[in-house]
Every structure is written in structure tokens, then in C-alpha cells.
Amino acid sequence: MKEFKHISVTETAALQAEGKVVIADIRDEQSFAAAHIDGAYHLTNGSLVGFMQQFEFEQPVVVVCYHGNSSQGAAQYLAQQGFEQVYSMDGGFESWRSQLPFVSDSGA
To answer: Is 65 a catalytic residue?
Structure first.
């Protein structure tokens, strides 16, 4: 796959419930610590190499940002690196936050 696909919050939650996807959150450290999707991997420039070593190219990946814009570029990058099933979650974390539970590292 050389192109990423779009995916909804509902579709992402369903894949996550089945254990079939890794969620890669590309938001900044403070935003990720304040609130994120349970089990999400905080994907940054500094953690990219570890991410690529930890997950197989066959592993479906959903990239999440704030509103679903920045995630598209990151998803395209992962697809170009060889990940076969890459998605950008429409609406981003803010859409997830308004619909589904999330976790907070800060206790908020």
C-alpha cells in the first residue's frame, strides 16, 4: 500500500476492540499526557525508529492527531515506509474525545 486511507472514530474503535490495530498518536507530549486513546503509541520523531522496529509492516496502523489533518501526512509517510494498512482517523482525537472513553496520564 502506497497510500493511506481514511477511517472513522467508530471504525477505529471497532478495530481496536478486536485487537487488530495499533493507534499511533502524533500529538505533542503534553497533549498526549493530558489525554489519549487507551493503548495508543505516542509516535514522535524520537520514537519513530522504535515504532518501526516494534511493529510489523503487516500490522494495521491508525494515525491520530488533534483534528485529523496532520495525521494524513504522517499516515502517508508510514505507508511510504512500507506499512501495508495505514489509516488517518477523521476528526482526530477531539472527535474521539467527544464520543468515546480515553485515558489520562495526568489524572485529569
So the answer is: yes
